[in-house]
Predict the 3D structure of the following.
Amino acid sequence: EGEEKEPVLQTLTIFAGGIVYDFRWTEPKEITVFDPLRGHFTLLDESQRIKAVVTTQELLDFSLQLEKEAAKQKGLVAFCAQPDFAQTESPIEQHGQTLTELRFDAKPLTYVVLGQKAQHAEAAKAYRQFADWCARLNTTAGNLPAAARLVVNQTLAEKELLPLEVTRTVPVGKKSRVLRSEHRFNWKLSGEDEKRIGRAGDAMAQFEVVSYQRYCNGPDKSANKQVRR
């Protein structure tokens, strides 16, 4: 965030067998499992040994209602419900490779994305699907409507790009709030990755099922329990 050197959040995300496993390394630790074929997220709290399931239909219904209400407002919230960016694309040379800089400019919100070509088109599609549904999941924790981020994800997928860096800038008075994410990609699963997937499977089988509301209002009262992108 801003000029800070230490990240607010660190995660490891594994795409394997059509399922996405997202491991939060920053406290409170959590595993988020996305199963697109079955159409749901499973959220796993390792400290409390509880889990909650949220369906993609529930998220879609919530997002549509949120956007409907946000469109009645003004400023940033309304823009994120019905975004209209000016988009530009530029080649960037970095460390001997050609990357692509995408800019999404608007008065209340700007995204700047540094993208690299995916090794295969399916990877870009899989990333977009996961990022889209994560954006919708985040709205349930009081975040902005997802539509603005969905525009960014769509453009990346159409150009078969994966994001190395995503910078979001929101003007706040005479200043700006800047959030930046950095992504690193590996194309092979390690032995440790396989163990993590196994741990997630065990947790899904063993943890107590609770409501999504109870899951989000656990002892730490954290508003950041869900995966953040």
